[in-house]
Amino acid sequence: MRHKGDIFQNSAKANAVPLVMFIDMNCYFASCEQQRHPELRGKPVGVLTYDSPNAAVIAASTEAKKFGIKSGMRLGDCRQLCPELITTTTNPPWYRQIHVDVMAILRSYCDDVIPKSIDEAVLNFNSYSLVYNDLSAIAKKIKADIAAKYDYLKCSIGIAPNSFLAKVGTGLQKRDGLVVITPDNIDSYLATMKLTDLPGIATNNERRLHMIGIRNPLEMRHSSPALLRKAFGGVVGDYWHRRLNFAEVDMYSRAENRTMSATRTLSRQQSQNRQVLDSMLISLCTRLEQRMVKSGLFCKEVSFSIRYRDGGSWDTAVKLADPLQDAMEMINYIKERITDYERSHSLQALFNERVTNLTVVITSFMNGSVMQYSLFDNRMKKDTVRKVMYEIKEVYEQNNIVRKGCELIIPGVMKDAIGFGSVKDMIVKLDGEIKNRHLLEEDKPGVRRMATLKKKPVEEHKEPDYNDIPQNEEWEGVSLAQTLQHARK
Ligand SMILES: [Mg+2]
Question: What pTM was estimated for this model as a whole?
Fold first, then answer.
């Protein structure tokens, strides 16, 4: 349960002052090409990844858009709409260069700049309320600075009390726009929009909203959190209510993760031993504990899933009244759910020889610095002790010792992980990439660099923007790579 007064990770309380700016470069790739090749300016241009008749246009210039050309359209279809379309292929180093220069301009006005993509960024001016009294003037200066460096580039800027509404603002005036959304004018803007004009609302969400009688963004803003929870099936509905009512729920920097997950695939040999399964659960939870301690976060939701060899699965989610960081607490909650389920279903144990994968995902983070401790428990002490323990482990380079210990149940399996074992669990793919599904990951960057294997992105991520967060990557095969290097000598 969320209490009133909780400061949710990344979310300020509703704040009606427009202090967040969102910048979206207009027709970015196409404008970059027109910047570099003045002969393309003022003409319909389509940017392609490969120069082939079957290629799709990945970006269209303003002039091309007037003919109805959109990103993702096949070149053939584009030519039908606009026979004089000029095509050019992408030049990523040039786009990155401009991105870096634009970000430098933004950082000269605000030190809290989060790039959202190659052509978008959010600037949080919340700590500048006494420095600047007119953010529109700042926005105009930013536009002028960009134009001074790249005269053909234009951007749309939205200013609002939160980053979501600021982004909405960039969509309201497309080329070279500047829109400030305030409590006074928000309803008049929303009244002109369709649900699918809101970033994050596509046809599926639109259908859900229609089903409960919400037909447009204005009605959505004035709906109760309870109704929106019904539409979105849970806490996501609260986020939507907060977004449209000036609270911040979308401001994430690299250090602040929306979800963290740990997952482990098990061999047949491993899943035959109940103790191994228990130990794997400890290992996964310990890994998450370690990440939370490292980033000073506590979570309020834990979910756990088991996948079976026959394709079946079982999952559970626990919402917590008190945010937790402790691995053993996390395990106890999960085990409680497992026991409840087993009792009420009198089926065979959930941890059985058919298990092929265990995954723990944690979410709803709170920063340790805003934790409220109850007066009558000793959590605060425990939390401090845990932090100190990790600091000591860090000094002695024993960060992973608990996890390693947990996975040391079957000596033969651990042999793989420390680098001398059999290669029966190894998969060599056609392209030469080598995988072993039962190895331990290491945290040390030095060791990571030695790995010849590819990183595996975490699957549980639903928000594409945040996929590159280092703490959310699972690394596999490190020790095997070392083994192979050793074997080749
Ligand atoms: Mg753009």
Answer: 0.55
